[in-house]
């Protein structure tokens, strides 16, 4: 099962520019979480801080007992081996075949024999639908294939935490739908903790168990997907609805005067009609059941009383709909937090 990631009071600046401050959240083990936010709000900086590639000035990121911010570099280096990182552009070596690109971490970080490396690489290429493309160079394949190759490379060291930076960037809506399904399928197969950074609303509404959003140098919210999907917080409603009206402007944020002017001119966006929540994607038939869904059900039931009414209602009806849990009925005490046997 994936590992929990606990982020506490994290603050990151570059010179006098604060990217975000006091970010606190927990990525539950084995669950899929998405971090949303308009361009430039620091999503990539957050991902790099979680894996210890950037050092926030304050706060900590606890992974398996190691603080990725403040522990000695050798401990951070070791803990980083628990992660798989899929970069936005795939970050493949242009002169190496896909096979060699994907084999690279195994050759660098393990003493595995070539026959074993071949087995692992082929297995991961199969998982991301790239079998047959082993000999291709990155320049000879589509952007979507490069992303999948980057994902396969992130998987070869059997990560327990997978970080994906904008897996949809540059992809058409159909390829984005495929990558969404792939992320859910990988979660079903690996049961790894996943954090996906994106501003794609389709991914946000169908893939994650949990969602968060960065805006105006702070974490607006983080919690079960239903909390953001039912939120009436202007910035969340504007972002998920994809409107112009609201606090998000062309260059990140609008001032009060601009918002008042828009209102006078009838630029509307947020509506009081509740958004319909799309069902979360299920793994492709034939793949294992996502263990995270079973664990999450118990975790979220324990949180219900602390959630806003709209989120609570959405969670209860989703549990009803799938027939997994009758609303309001607590899960058997012995299994709480421990996951299925
Ligand atoms: N190494 C760096 N040095 C200085 N500033 C940086 C550095 N990396 C990022 N920034 C700044 O931090 C801010 C957040 O950048 P980041 O790339 O994390 O945003 P983002 O939310 O991922 O944006 P996008 O959705 O457009 O990819 C930006 O203002 C960026 O210029």
Separate helix tally = 12
β-strand percent reads: 15-25%
CATH class of the largest domain: Alpha Beta
Number of domains: 2
The gross shape turns out to be globular
* Strand line-up across the major sheet: 6-7-8-3-9-10
Taking the alpha carbons of the first and last residues, their distance comes to 12 Å
Query: Oligomeric state of the chains?
Result: single chain
Rg, alpha carbons: 21 Å
Bound molecules: adenosine-5'-triphosphate
Q: Uncertain segments of ≥5 residues (pLDDT<50)? A: 325-341
Query: Mean pLDDT, nearest integer?
Result: 85
Describe the structure.
- It is a single chain.
- By secondary structure, the chain is of the alpha/beta class.
- It contains 12 helices and 12 strands.
- The chain folds into 2 domains: 5-224, 3-Layer(aba) Sandwich (Rossmann fold); 234-264, no CATH class.
- The strands form 3 sheets. It has a 6-stranded mixed sheet with strand order 6-7-8-3-9-10. It has a 4-stranded antiparallel sheet with strand order 2-1-4-5, covered by helices on one side.
- A hairpin with a 2-residue loop joins β11 (248-249) and β12.
- The radius of gyration is 21 Å and the shape is globular.
- The site of adenosine-5'-triphosphate has 11 residues, from α1.
- Residues 14, 19, 37, 39-45, 199 line the site of adenosine-5'-triphosphate (ATP).
Give the secondary structure arrangement, pairings included.
Blueprint: E1 5-14, E2 17-27, E3 32-36, H1 43-50, E4 58-63, E5 66-67, H2 73-80, E6 83-86, H3 98-109, H4 114-127, H5 143-155, E7 161-165, H6 173-190, E8 193-197, H7 201-206, E9 210-215, E10 218-224, H8 225-229, H9 234-241, E11 248-249, E12 252-253, H10 256-264, H11 291-303, H12 309-322
Protein name: ABC transporter ATP-binding protein
InterPro entries: AAA+_ATPase (IPR003593), ABC_transporter-like_ATP-bd (IPR003439), ABC_transporter-like_CS (IPR017871), P-loop_NTPase (IPR027417)
Keywords: ATP-binding, Nucleotide-binding, Transport
């Amino acid at each position: 099962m994936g590992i929990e990631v606990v982020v506490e009071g994290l603050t990151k600046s570059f010179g006098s520019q604060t990217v975000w401050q006091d970010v606190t959240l927990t990525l539950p083990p084995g669950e899929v979480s998405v971090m949303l936010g308009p361009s430039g709000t620091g999503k990539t900086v957050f991902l790099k801080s979680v894996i210890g590639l950037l050092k926030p000035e304050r706060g900590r990121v606890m992974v398996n007992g190691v603080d990725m911010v403040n522990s000695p570099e050798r401990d951070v280096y070791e803990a980083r081996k628990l992660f798989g990182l899929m970069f936005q552009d795939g970050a493949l070596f242009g002169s190496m075949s896909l096979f060699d690109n994907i084999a690279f971490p195994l050759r660098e970080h393990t003493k595995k024999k070539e026959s074993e490396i071949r087995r692992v690489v082929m297995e991961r290429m199969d998982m991301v639908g790239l079998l047959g493309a082993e000999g291709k160079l990155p320049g000879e394949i589509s952007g979507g294939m490069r992303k999948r190759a980057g994902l396969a490379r992130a998987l070869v060291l059997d990560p327990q935490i997978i970080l994906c930076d904008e897996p949809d960037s540059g992809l058409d809506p159909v390829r984005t739908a495929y990558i969404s399904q792939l992320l859910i399928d990988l979660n079903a197969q690996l049961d790894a903790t996943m954090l996906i950074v994106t501003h794609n609303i389709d991914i946000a509404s169908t893939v994650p168990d949990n969602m968060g959003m960065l805006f105006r140098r702070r974490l607006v919210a983080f919690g079960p997907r239903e909390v953001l999907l039912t939120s009436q917080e202007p910035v969340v409603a504007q972002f998920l609805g994809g409107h112009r009206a609201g606090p998000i402007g062309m260059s990140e944020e609008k001032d009060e005067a601009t918002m008042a002017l828009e209102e006078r001119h009838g630029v509307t966006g947020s509506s009081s009609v509740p958004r319909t929540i799309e069902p979360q994607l299920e793994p492709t038939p034939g793949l294992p059941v996502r263990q995270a869904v079973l664990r999450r059900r118990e975790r979220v039931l324990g949180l219900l009383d602390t959630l806003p009414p709209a989120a609570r209602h959405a969670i209860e009806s989703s549990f009803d709909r799938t027939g997994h849990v009758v609303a309001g009925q607590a899960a058997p005490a012995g299994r709480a937090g421990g996951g299925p046997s």
